[in-house]
Amino acid sequence: MVTEAPIAIPPSRMQTATNVAARALNRGFTWMTMLFSIFIGLRIVIAALPAIRQYGLGFLAGQVWNPAKNVYSVLPEIWGTLYSSVLALIVATAFGVAAAIFLAEGFMGDGVFALLKLGNLQYHPRWGKLPAQAETVLRNIIELLAAIPSVVYGLWGLFVIIPLVRPGCHWLHEHLGWIPLFSTDLSGPGMLPAVIVLSIMILPTITAIGRGSLAAVPSLLRMAAYGLGATRWETILAVTLPAASRGIFGGVVLAFGRALGETMALAMLVGNTNVISISLFSPGDTLAALLANTFPEASPKDVGVLMYAATVLLVITMLVNVAGAYLVQFTAAEDEGQQA
Amino acid sequence: MRIRALTLAASVLLATIGLTSCVGAAGSKEAADVRLQGSGASFPFPIYSKWFKAFSGAHQNVEIDYQSTGSGSGVKSFIDKTVDFGASDKAMTPAEIKRAGGGVQLLPLTAGNIVLIYNVPGVKKLRLSRAAYPGIFLGTVKKWNDPAIAKANPGVKLPDSPINVVVRADSSGTTFVFTQHLSTISKAFAANPGKNDAPAWSVGTRSKGNEGVTSSVQTTPDSIGYVEYGYALIQKMPMAQLENKAGKFVAASTASGQAAIASAKLPANLIAWVPDPAVKDAYPIATFTWLLCYKRNPEPRKAEVLRNLASYILTDGQKESEALGYLPLPPTVAAKVRAAVHNIQ
């Protein structure tokens, strides 16, 4: 006779215990992460309070940094941080989204397939796997850009990019110097080399997240567009890209946050000069580079001021992230409204 | 099956731990090596690296690690007691010595010149008068073909391009000595920015360390910057000849540097400066560089190694200075410093 074990039995004591333990651990680590970030922020702000009381908001508006005369102000650094990050973001978004589309739509695989077709190898048991492998290799190479250390980028920019762009910059300054963007001459480190290297550094973020969002668009949407007679590019530009735009935008905001905080590469490439200029070729300074250069030998009285600068950087980054999150939510609400 | 796998894994883990602890116990019976950690000036970094490597090679159980972080950072680490010794070209101010507590012994182990390296295509020899080079770093002399520079260089074709000045981004003993010299010879410079290890320069782009300034000048045409002589020698950078107090244009070399520091009289605390030597053949910008040691060290073994290291540097080590562009100490100075080495306990 077959023993009848009940199909649904209540959980054993062991199962309940492990369940509770797992949830508690999960919740604990989540709280720890949040508390950790709040703790870091609080420590920096508390260390900055004496300097905030002493220098007030003039710190954010002045342009002179002279420790010998006790005059501190970071407006050139704030300008430099925002200017270099925004320019790098524009360049990186253009290239990054293009790379994401290239990867997600499988153009690499298509190209390799066409090549294999020439030799009639496209259905070969080993060679036939090449398109998929080529896609993986390309994706890994782009993500490898994120693994290169910041100092190496700085050295590369110093020894390769600056000599490379110098002739072009001279030409632009001499012939088109009346345009404010080209009004000074490139004397070595400057905003343009910094922007070029910074955009390469944040490109993998945009590409990786963009590729993920594009791949997550349901293929039903694509098929529907093809079914209505859209060409491949019409589908990509009018259907897939808008559907993935929220994810891509999230990647862009993340990349902006990284660009704002980038330190070593910019410390080597931006010239570390207290100057506010809209010219692409003028040197400048960023908050992170200022901290990297002056913190190691800061005397106790300077530490408060540098913590104040660090607080300013934290606030800027936080504002950018909050604004980005708001925009993502705003566009999402619109989408949902349309779908309903 | 699962329990068997778990038992196997656990026993392998225990065996590994047991073996490594046995090996560890056996290893600790050997003589533990002495590790000295130091950081500070980038000015003497090349010669210090050579000396420390030679000393470690000769003494098997000694390891000396030196990081070139800048004089300011070296003094700060020394005061915070995060290193066993420090190094600084601007010695230590009385306030800093007080903050360090526990007795401080400064040992001038070597000296060097500060040179002005330049990168002007086509100009092989450049002479800068006492009016010209402070002007360059003040921003009053803006172009290479300015009369102040052209007057001292008849027959040299100077381009009509702006001078790209390269200065230090970080707090630096090299900067301190350089601005001290400029403040001595130029009242305008003494007023602003003045003598400082991180002055508010009104011109120039900034690079980190002697190394950063050297590579910036190397890669930027029409540029000029100040670095320690050894860096310029090793990178084969063209150096400007400077006009000294006696009115002679002198190139940096071991002989001209030694002429400069020979006039220095070392007081008891062994801190002396030569901001503007008057000797005829002296190079105008030369300085000692100091090793910062504690008079009372927590570990007597480390103190002993430090004393042996200093004695080695002050005797055999001085022979290696010239090849790397540093100045061997005058014999009287070396003798005085050797006597002070005994204060490190």
What's the arrangement of secondary structure elements?
The complex is a heterodimer of chains A (340) and B (345).
Chain A lengths: L12 H43 L2 H4 L13 H30 L2 H12 L11 H15 L5 H27 L14 H25 L3 H9 L4 H30 L2 H6 L17 H8 L5 H40 L1
Helix pairs in contact in A: 1-12, 3-7, 3-9, 4-5, 5-7, 6-7, 7-9, 8-9, 9-12, 11-12
Chain B lengths: L1 H26 L6 E7 L4 H14 L3 E7 L2 H10 L4 E4 L5 H7 L3 E16 L7 E2 L3 H7 L8 H4 L13 E5 L4 H13 L1 H5 L13 E3 L1 H11 L3 E6 H6 L6 E3 L5 E2 L3 H9 L23 E9 L5 H15 L16 H10 L5
Parallel strand pairs in B: 1-2, 1-3, 5-9, 6-7, 6-8
Antiparallel strand pairs in B: 3-11, 4-8, 4-11, 9-10
Helix pairs in contact in B: 3-4
The beta-strand count of chain A equals 0
Oligomer: heterodimer
Estimate the global geometry of chain A from the Cα principal axes: globular
Question: Percent of residues of chain B in helical segments?
Answer: 25-40%
User: What do the pLDDT scores of chain A average to?
Assistant: 90
CATH topology of the largest domain in chain B: D-Maltodextrin-Binding Protein, domain 2
Rg estimate of chain A, integer Å: 26 Å
So, CATH architecture of the largest domain in chain B? 3-Layer(aba) Sandwich
Strand content of chain A: under 5%
The class by helix and strand makeup of chain B works out as alpha/beta
Structure description:
The complex is a heterodimer of chains A (340) and B (345). Chain A is an all-alpha fold. Helices cover 73% and strands 0% of the residues of chain A. Chain A is built from 12 helices and no strands. Chain A has helices spanning 13-55, 58-61, 75-104, 107-118, 130-144, 150-176, 191-215, 219-227, 232-261, 264-269, 287-294, 300-339. In chain A, helix 1 packs across helix 12 and helix 8 (219-227) runs antiparallel to helix 9 (232-261). The longest helix of chain A has 43 residues, at 13-55. Chain A is globular, with a radius of gyration of 26 Å. The relative contact order of chain A is 0.13. Chain B has 345 residues and is α/β, with parallel strands linked by helices. Chain B folds into 2 domains: 8-111 and 291-341, Periplasmic binding protein-like II (D-Maltodextrin-Binding Protein, domain 2), CATH 3.40.190.10; 113-261, Periplasmic binding protein-like II (D-Maltodextrin-Binding Protein, domain 2, 3-Layer(aba) Sandwich), CATH 3.40.190. Chain B contains 13 helices and 11 strands. In chain B, the strands form 2 sheets. An 8-stranded mixed β-sheet of chain B has the order 2-1-3-11-4-8-6-7.
